[in-house]
Input
Amino acid sequence: MKLWRRPLNPVLARELKERLRTRRATVVVTAYLMILALILQVVYSALSSSAADAFNGGIVATQSARFGRSLFETLLFFMLLLVCFIVPGLTADAITGERERQTLVPLQVSLLSPRAIVSGKLLASLAFVTLLVLATLPLLGVSFLLGGVSVGQMARGVAVVLATGLVVACLALACSSLARRTQAAMVLAYAATLFLTLGSVMIYGAQAVLDDEAEPHRPPLAVLTLNPFLAAADATGQQTFDGSVTSPLELMRGLLDEVDRNAVAFDQGFVGGPGFVGGGFAENGEGFMDAAPPRLAPPPVPPPAVPSPETTGVSETTVAGGSGETEVGGAPGPDDVVSIAPVAPDGFSGPGPIRLEGQDPFVLDDDRLPFWMWSALVLATVAAAASLLAARRLRTPSTRTA
Amino acid sequence: MTTVGQVTGPSEEVAAGSPPDLAVKVEGLTKRYGELFAVRDLDLVVPRGAIFGLIGPNGAGKSTTFLALASLLTPTSGKVEIAGCDPATDPRGVRGKLGYMPDVMGVYDNLRVHEYLAFFAGAYRVPRTAWPALIDGLLELVDLSGKREAMVDSLSRGMKQRLSLARALVHDPEVLVLDEPASGLDPRARVELRELLVELRAMGKTVVVSSHILAELEEMCTEVAIMEAGRLLAVGTPRSIGDQLGGGRTIRVRLAGGEVQEHAVVTEGDQQALLARLVAEGLPVVEFTETSSGLEDLFLRITKGVVQ
Ligand SMILES: Nc1ncnc2c1ncn2[C@@H]1O[C@H](COP(=O)(O)OP(=O)(O)OP(=O)(O)O)[C@@H](O)[C@H]1O
Ligand SMILES: [Mg+2]
Output
């Protein structure tokens, strides 16, 4: 059947009708816009006063671009935050609500497939997020007028918000299909969202803190791909504008850079105590290149990140700009990783992560998949799994709440 | 177990050959919830064009049976067939042929009556062009035309019940499974429901209904089954069921002058004999009726009020 001939998903049509009739939608959109406008106001005045200080009243073009960019990124950050806050609340009752109102059985006994029910619910949530984003466009326009943001970046930012909304909606829907009551579904959905946003970063941090110094593990980078904020920061970063920006997303980019450096440093054997470097590397002497020796410890890479951006990136890149200090043996695949022969300067023997001078893998490696793409893949997988779970739960014909 | 073999033998021939003449077939249906048998080894056969009543007290397993018919419940054991489709292997086939009305009727908050029906017309893949005529026809059928624009949740209980029935008819199903359709209806609506079911039967549909009240179904059903505690107690035409169970009916005789007598009879022969005797005795009979409470007595007697 042709796509445009296909009748609208009945569940979607009904959801839209119902949602537009409740006051809830209006209230949520209004509250959302008011919060964002308030933030815009605060940021605007803060930034413009600092700009005024620096330039005695007149804002120079680059300054204006910087300003616009900062506004845009701050708005984007708070859009994401609000979406993460709103979507679980609006989606978690999707199935439990039907169950509680005893309207689920007629749906299940109809010719609608569980998948159609799930996608109808998802599309309804996505439509609401789209409405939110559209309502934000005038605010985004302000930052656009100031410059510093390209249309492409704007579109990318909007796409990230929509995608995040969809992922969160999928999770909330899965929670709704698992729970018996709406309250439980709400709690689960917010917990899942919190796990994506805060939990992922905390796991990363905890791992770094708890790591045994004698036997360091590769920093669990993969867990960070779950974080939509980091993905947003990466996806909207640095392409056309290189002025310094003050925004929450910029902070996250800093964090990502740091994380990336640590991972690369680890891969190159610079992390850990002196014994680490001495033990592993000294036995083989300097001649890593020809022998392709086993790595110190195969990195414990969690499944979703098997081709983790850093490993792939490093392994496929011959670091040309690295001032000759490192050479990379191109060995694709995460398992037989890379032999990099560092002519380790003295400073590298100290414990803890080390910044590599003259080599910024984040900027340098143009041919590796960027972080946000990994993140998109991982999150898409999570979302798909969640919605399949929801559909599956709808298929199982245990219908009674009593 | 040999009987099961005998029953399944011919049924497979039917499934393979000519279209099955059975609307519903239930074989050895059992549903356990832990230790509790909600339905135990139930066999039912409903021919096409029948109005089949399933009667039993609370917790007898009627709704459980109906859920199994509606492909919403996986039986612990046993087999169900709706117009030749097995819910276990072909739930979509069953759903296309079956209109199911659950015992509880939930409604959406912000939907009008006609939108509610349109939603289910969409859910049953009825082409959009057919919706207006379909919805008007259905509302006419269940006598809700005046409530077309009303919000669904503003309807009275009985109206919701009727809307639920209209919903079950949205895809013109061959078989209707109605779980206590008369509960919550006023006496007039009950009579109308009865007429409606007879009308549906005339349209060639098969109707399976449940009730707590034997008398309620007696007049319209071609066949009734009585179950209790998950087991079938009796099946047959409403007339024969009393005889089958050796139970009697009560005949109320009112004589001119106000004297009332009650006579217990078992068969229709007894009934004729009683009338002949009364006439022969020259009594001034002005009323000779079977009381429906007789059926209730029977029902109460054979169902022991076992609560599982
Ligand atoms: N999901 C369930 N879990 C556990 N027990 C159940 C479940 N559903 C039904 N039962 C039990 O199965 C038995 C039959 O229930 P069912 O709803 O089929 O009875 P019913 O004949 O429809 O009764 P009523 O006339 O009250 O509607 C009851 O004892 C009930 O408690
Ligand atoms: Mg019941």
Q: What stands out?
A: Residues 187-202 of chain B form the longest helix (16 residues).
